[in-house]
Amino acid sequence: MLSQPFRIETVHRESYDTFTVELQPTNGHDSFLFAPGQYNMLYVFGVGEVPISISGDPDRPENLMHTTRAVGTVTKAMAELQKGDVIGIRGPYGTSWPVDRAEGYDVVFVAGGIGLAPLRPALYHVLAHRDRYGKVVLLYGTRSPDDILYRSELEQWRSRFDLEVHVTVDYADATWRGNVGVVTSLIPKAPFDPLHSMAMICGPEVMMRFTAIELLKRGIEHEHIYLTMERNMKCAIGFCGHCQFGQHFVCRDGPVFSYAHIGHMLSQWEV
Amino acid sequence: METTTLEPILAEHPFFQGLAPEYLKLLVSCAANVRYKANEMIIRAGQEAVHFFLLRHGEAYVEIHDPRHRHVVIHKLHEGDVFGWSWMLPPYKAHFDVRANTLVRAISLDGKCLREKFDTDNSLGYQMLLRFTPLIVQRFERTSLQLLDVYS
Ligand SMILES: Cc1cc2nc3c(=O)[nH]c(=O)nc-3n(C[C@H](O)[C@H](O)[C@H](O)COP(=O)(O)OP(=O)(O)OC[C@H]3O[C@@H](n4cnc5c(N)ncnc54)[C@H](O)[C@@H]3O)c2cc1C
Ligand code: FES
Description:
Low-confidence stretches of chain B: none
Bound molecules: flavin-adenine dinucleotide, FE2/S2 (inorganic) cluster
CATH class of the largest domain in chain A: Alpha Beta
CATH topology of the largest domain in chain A: Rossmann fold
CATH superfamily of chain B: Jelly Rolls
Distance between the termini of chain A: 28 Å
Number of helices of chain B: 4
Distance between the termini of chain B: 53 Å
Strand order of the largest sheet of chain B: 1-8-3-6
Order of helices and strands of chain B: HHEEEEEEEEHH
Number of helices of chain A: 6
CATH topology of chain B: Jelly Rolls
Mean pLDDT of chain A: 93
Oligomer: heterodimer
Shape of chain B: globular
Radius of gyration of chain A: 18 Å
CATH architecture of the largest domain in chain A: 3-Layer(aba) Sandwich
Shape of chain A: globular
Helix content of chain A: 10-25%
Radius of gyration of chain B: 16 Å
Number of strands of chain A: 16
Largest sheet of chain A: 7 strands, mixed
Strand content of chain B: 25-35%
Strand content of chain A: 25-35%
CATH class of chain B: Mainly Beta
CATH superfamily of the largest domain in chain A: Nucleotide-binding domain of ferredoxin-NADP reductase (FNR) module
CATH architecture of chain B: Sandwich
Order of helices and strands of chain A: EEEEEHEEHEHEEEEHEEEHEH
Helix content of chain B: 25-40%
Number of strands of chain B: 8
């Protein structure tokens, strides 16, 4: 699949190193259908191509959104782009969050850092079809209050009666009035029924490993825990082998995996 | 007067679940009902560690001071949490500050009083160790994750 040119319509600075772009195809096609959890390959012309999850609303495919943290060559170059600039998009690729399978269950979203971005489409979907789910809980951890993404949206979500939102930071100064402690510390008291819950986790690998352990301690079954894996990618279509994770290719078999399938590999550093 | 009212409260707390009633009675004689206003210090780092606390109402922050005299909050305590265990081992000095974030109501247990009881009844000491160790391990795990700085 070749990259299609998309124009940047808006750039929103989420934090000092993270930004969200809204994109429109330059060729006039006006919608980009995707499933929550899928990603695109974003090409910054002349610099390189990186996989970035789609962070927008799957029910509003006319607004293709990506939230990116500037960490290296390509993402830092992307952070310099402005409204009107054009980038290449290839996708959508990969597996999706089990939003259909989760119907009838309580849904627990656990996000760490930039991990809220790949989870946001699933949260939009669940909130758009709220009556199909039991309790919905979002547990979100970041490094410090300055790193919190989607602040105004989090405030809106917090004010809903049908969604439980808990945010925590690893460190804060004395002016912060919210939770302090790692995101796993929110799990023991989170209001969900472990026997009827589906959990979706996204964040750094270590955070996901300990989150899964806490969820299992609460009694959620292995098969009801899903998470996303990240590996360096090149082709994104299962050819090059760059993204190998055990016997899986993350680009094709993931990025969303069931913990029952990959949980045992999370603690093996050589995988 | 206070001892008769505190016994059912201790008995109900998950931390003391399964503890024999005669042990609960012993512990109650070391317990007191305490209250702190918002922003009041409950524990001060470096000072003698006298008590451990069962938080019954409100929130408190565990803090450390960095060399630039900033308060860095590293953990938030909620209703039901148990905190303060430096009284168990020499030199019996608190490692962190704990500050009330709201009005805090708690049961405090006097560490010196407890140590005396553990010395005379090792089995009570063992029972308490069984309850404190998971909390310490949990705090250790969470602090390790914080130190790993996984979001950086
Ligand atoms: C399926 C998938 C979805 C993703 N979704 C998002 C997303 O929604 N938002 C987002 O910001 N990022 C996302 N990423 C990560 C993103 O692809 C990388 O951050 C990006 O490829 C880095 O490229 P770079 O050229 O900027 O950095 P490089 O120059 O390649 O690397 C710079 C530094 O960043 C580190 N780095 C590189 N890749 C990663 C990575 N994947 N995770 C952590 N550190 C890395 C390198 O070790 C190096 O230290 C996703 C990755 C995958 C596989
Ligand atoms: S990126 Fe080429 S096989 Fe996955």
